[in-house]
């Protein structure tokens, strides 16, 4: 990486030098993309075996803030996000549900896209499914084989990590003394278990597989991202990002696969978001301590409060989640919206902008920008905006604020919302689009059970009007019923 910071090339960038913490070097460095004015970025997307939880969305919101910030500085973004629609868990879950993996994952991809819209996450330029890039993965594995980086065992192809001297450079694991030739088939494993990993997995009975020139089977997780990143972004990307849990083995293995094939550095800046925690444990499906967006929405939380909370804690700080923090976030958003409404609606005494207020607004805008330029320090950036809001409100209360002061202050608020995207009062609209009723308090589990039992009784006495009424009533409160063939019923929240 160049040690000499040059000015960033997107053209609104001359004032602030953008700096990011790069996991690869362990340092916070000036950000200078390869091509002037353009950022090539790869974002590890979700594994679509279930609804994403808000821990996942912590990372996706960070990636959106990163994207919006770079765009606001004039860069053209070329961002790729993958959808991992084949992996061990998907295969197992689809088989258990008795459907193909396509049918199984379609539902969660749709839910992910809907959730993204609710959180105002901008669509990346390319959102790509792993199963539509099997040929690219096979070709990359063939390239690695030609260069002697692979071997096969029982129909699976493995990457020989001893052949790649840079192995461990991202996660800083020590590979010295490691047992060579030991293999791992699982996609996710920990650092103590660094092994030769599967690029291509031989099919197991009853599992989904592809017939290919390297034999029947399915791809390992890491080769998916490496192949899609190289295809859409070229051999060297500017930024690769994900949550910290992806550093090892996922990103370490992506580096090995792509650099062994191309001989070029894979990604110049690696950005990793710290986890969202619950009671000091990582929120995860396997721990069972997770909340989906839909659950939070059906408990009355707004999309804007969730986005604000996730965005307000700088990405390299852990975020300990508690539903009460969402109330705090909701009142912050409320305060900002009220302020902008006041700026737009109130009739202030005539007069051009006072030098003081115009300067104050310009300073807030600069401080907001400086906070984000400093490795996306969203907390510092927000503090600058809240200071401005407080001072401008005081000035209005004292009758000192002039009509002409509104424009510069609004400009600062616009700069804020270009990144935070919470000022539009469209929460109800968003929830409606997700089919979540608003203004109706959600039901507790016991209340749902009572209504479900009443509906079962109505069905039994063939009073279908009553049974439909109860079903609608539950749907309005975000509860969906699934009738089974044997006359039983299961319920879940949307
Ligand atoms: P996955 O669907 O497991 O591949 O994860 C999708 C994204 O969410 C990845 O970038 C993960 O690193 C990230 N992620 C998973 N759990 C958390 C968490 N508790 N907090 C923050 N990010 C997470
Ligand atoms: Zn990935």
Walk me through what this model shows.
With 494 residues, the protein is α/β, with parallel strands linked by helices. The protein folds into 3 domains: 20-291, Rossmann fold; 296-433, Isoleucyl-tRNA Synthetase, Domain 1 (Orthogonal Bundle); 445-493, no CATH class. Helices cover 44% and strands 15% of the residues. The protein is built from 15 helices and 17 strands. Strands 5-4-3-11-12 form a 5-stranded parallel beta sheet, sandwiched between helices. Strands 6, 7, 8, 9 and 10 form a 5-stranded mixed beta sheet that branches. Strand 13 and strand 14 form a beta hairpin. Helix 5 packs across helix 6 (247-262) and helix 14 (445-460) packs antiparallel against helix 15 (464-476). The radius of gyration is 26 Å and the shape is flat. Mean pLDDT is 92; it is low at 1-14. The structure holds adenosine monophosphate and zinc ion (ZN). The site of zinc ion has 3 residues, from loops.
In angstroms, what separates the terminal alpha carbons?
Answer: 47 Å
In total, how many beta strands? Answer: 17
Largest sheet: 5 strands, parallel
Q: Write down the overall mean pLDDT.
A: 92
Tally the structural domains: 3
Q: Can you list the strand order of the major beta sheet? A: 5-4-3-11-12
Counting DSSP H or I runs of 4 or more residues, the number of helices is: 15
Distinct small molecules: adenosine monophosphate, zinc ion
Helix content: 40-55%
Radius of gyration over all CA atoms, rounded: 26 Å
CATH class division of the largest domain: Alpha Beta
Strand content: 15-25%
Structural class assignment: alpha/beta
- Low-pLDDT stretches are 1-14
Q: What is the third-level CATH name, the topology of the largest domain?
A: Rossmann fold
């Amino acid at each position: 990486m160049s040690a000499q910071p040059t000015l960033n090339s997107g053209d609104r960038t001359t004032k602030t030098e953008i700096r990011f913490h790069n996991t690869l070097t362990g340092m916070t460095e000036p950000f200078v993309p390869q091509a002037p004015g353009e950022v090539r970025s790869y974002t590890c997307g979700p594994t679509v075996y279930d609804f994403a939880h808000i821990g996942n969305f912590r990372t996706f919101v960070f990636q959106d803030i990163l994207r919006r910030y770079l765009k606001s500085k004039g860069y053209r973004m070329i961002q790729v996000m993958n959808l991992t629609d084949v992996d061990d868990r998907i295969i197992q879950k689809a088989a258990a549900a008795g459907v193909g993996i396509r049918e199984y994952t379609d539902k969660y991809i749709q839910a992910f896209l809907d959730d993204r819209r609710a959180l105002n996450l901008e669509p990346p330029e390319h959102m790509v499914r792993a199963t539509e890039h099997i040929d690219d993965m096979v070709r990359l594995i063939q390239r690695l084989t030609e260069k002697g980086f692979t071997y096969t065992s029982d129909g699976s192809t493995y990457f020989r990590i001893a052949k790649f001297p840079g192995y461990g450079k991202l996660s800083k694991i020590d590979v010295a003394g490691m047992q060579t030739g030991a293999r791992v088939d699982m996609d996710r494993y920990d650092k103590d278990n660094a092994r030769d990993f599967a690029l291509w997995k031989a099919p197991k009975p009853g599992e989904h597989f592809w017939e290919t020139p390297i034999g029947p089977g399915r791809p390992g997780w890491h080769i998916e991202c490496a192949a899609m990143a190289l295809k859409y972004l070229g051999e060297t990307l500017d930024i690769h990002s994900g949550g910290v849990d992806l550093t090892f083995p996922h990103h370490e293995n992506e580096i090995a696969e792509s650099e062994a094939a191309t001989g070029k550095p894979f990604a110049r800046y690696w950005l990793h978001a710290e986890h969202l925690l619950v009671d000091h444990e990582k929120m995860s499906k396997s721990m069972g301590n997770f909340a989906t967006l839909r659950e939070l929405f059906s408990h009355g939380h707004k999309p804007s409060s969730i986005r604000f909370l996730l965005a307000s804690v700088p990405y390299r700080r852990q975020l300990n989640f508690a539903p009460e923090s969402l109330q705090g976030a909701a009142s912050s958003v409320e305060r900002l919206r009220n302020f902008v409404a006041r700026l737009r609606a109130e009739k202030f005494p005539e007069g051009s902008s006072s030098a003081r207020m115009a300067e104050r607004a310009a300073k807030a805008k600069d401080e907001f920008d400086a906070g984000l330029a400093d490795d996306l320090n969203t907390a510092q950036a927000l503090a600058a905006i809240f200071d401005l809001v407080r001072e401008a409100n005081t000035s209005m209360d004292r009758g000192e604020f002039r009509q002409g002061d509104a424009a510069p202050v609004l400009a600062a608020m616009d700069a804020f919302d270009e990144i935070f995207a919470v000022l539009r009062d469209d929460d109800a609209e968003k929830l409606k689009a997700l089919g979540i009723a608003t203004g109706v308090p959600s039901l507790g589990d016991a209340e749902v059970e009572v209504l479900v039992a009443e509906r079962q009784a109505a069905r039994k006495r063939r009073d279908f009007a009553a049974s439909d009424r109860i079903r609608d009533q539950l749907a309005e409160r975000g509860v969906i019923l699934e009738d089974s063939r044997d006359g039983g019923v299961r319920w879940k929240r949307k």
